[in-house]
Design a protein that fits this description.
It contains 16 helices and 14 strands. It is an alpha/beta fold. The two termini are 37 Å apart.
């Protein structure tokens, strides 16, 4: 595991924290277990760190006003804040009465997902979703071997480990159940929940229908829907819903499901070495991770019609025409049929083909529409421009 003495400055995320603090005094930093929240916080200059897993820390915070009064004008990390008896009250007092204190609070779920937070602190906080390692992280960590990132995944300890064992993945699953699911949601039937998670990881990138999972997991359809909401609220599963204006020719209800990390997809599929046939699916996950990292929003769509035409991702931004995104490991694998079907119904909007083997962006015309081919670097720049405009 990465130690404090060998910390990497994750420049993209550190900049995001500073920008968030310029808007609000409270920053909520969420992300899956071992994604690097604690290490990121400890690399912030002049930061004071408090770990709420320690009983001594929790005792200090029993009187929030007395605790905060000693930290005026300081930067403070409150790690694993959900361990406090009333974390939302603590943050509300800090935001309303101690605005000079810059606080970054960490947790594994969205505030809205957990019953431990009685108040979502609307208007009092900025939120950052720390995703598994994205493109800038590879530069910061000094290893831009994409195959290594796809196979190991984007949790820094897994990415950096010289000898990653299969037991490390199972240990993560066990820790996720014990420290996130049990503490935040108190679900029962661990075997059913973990079976459901395993099946989702194996089928990552495919269409989801709750009834298909109920029998193998030995629970009801309603329980499956509840499990999915918990997995989505803790960033472990991404639910990609279809884009539609409810046309009779479109798929309008079935979502697609993506695992949070390529390393877990490879582990549960039994992939120890990557074959050419594996790369397309993993590249699709990598592109989705880049979208999530930069847009800081899970609200991505996909499109599919009843004839089987499908576009990987659709971005919908207020006041903008839909952006169609196709993910291709190699540019010469692109066929325009799916985009042509989509643009028949939605003629206006950019068409982006994100390819692993494209170094410089270029444009091709296909009869009535144009397509921009780009690598991940150009794609990241375009996503950053969208963020700045909105």
């Amino acid at each position: 595991m990465l130690t404090c003495s060998h910390m990497v400055l994750r420049t993209y995320w550190l900049k995001m924290v500073e920008e968030a603090w310029s808007r609000k005094s409270i920053v909520w930093l969420s992300g899956v277990r071992r994604v690097g929240k604690t290490f990121l916080c400890k690399t912030i200059p002049d930061i004071e760190y408090f770990d709420c897993e320690l009983p001594s820390t929790r005792r200090q915070m029993e009187d929030p006003e007395g605790f905060l009064s000693k930290l005026k004008n300081k930067k403070v990390v409150v790690d694993e804040i959900h361990r406090l008896p009333n974390p939302s009250e603590f943050l509300k007092i800090a935001a309303d009465h101690f605005p000079s204190i810059k606080i970054i609070a960490t947790g594994s779920s969205t505030l809205q997902a957990s019953s431990r937070f009685r108040d979502s602190l609307t208007g009092r906080k900025a939120e950052i979703w720390l995703t598994p390692m994205m493109s800038q992280d590879l530069i910061d960590f000094g290893n831009q071997d994409l195959s290594h990132r796809l196979l190991r995944g984007g949790l820094p300890p897994f990415f950096l480990s010289p000898n990653l064992l299969e037991t490390d993945f199972q240990e993560w699953i066990d820790s996720y159940w014990a420290k996130d699911i049990q503490e935040l949601f108190r679900l029962e039937r661990r075997t059913s929940f973990q079976r459901f998670l395993e099946l989702l990881f194996i089928q990552s990138g495919g269409l989801f229908e709750a009834t298909r999972f109920a029998i193998p997991c030995e629970v009801s359809r309603g329980t499956i829907s509840n499990y999915l909401a918990v997995l989505s609220g803790t960033w472990v599963i991404h639910v990609i819903r279809p884009f539609s204006t409810r046309r009779s020719v479109e798929i309008i209800s079935a979502p697609k499901i993506y695992a949070f990390d390529t390393g877990f997809v490879c582990y549960f599929r039994g992939w120890h070495q990557l074959r050419d046939d594996d790369l397309g699916l993993l590249w699709e996950h990598w592109v989705l991770n880049e979208i999530h990292s930069r847009l800081q929003s899970p609200s991505v769509r996909y499109w599919r019609d009843k004839r089987g035409h499908e576009v990987d991702f659709i971005l919908i931004l207020r006041g903008k025409k839909p952006i169609a995104i196709e993910c291709k490991w190699r540019a010469d694998n692109f066929e325009p049929g799916n985009l042509k079907a989509f643009r028949y119904h939605y003629p206006e909007g950019p068409n982006w083909i994100v390819c692993q083997n494209v170094d410089r962006e270029y444009i091709r015309s296909y009869n009535s529409f144009k397509v921009e081919f780009m690598g991940l670097q150009e794609f990241g720049k375009k996503l950053d421009q969208l963020v700045r405009k909105h």
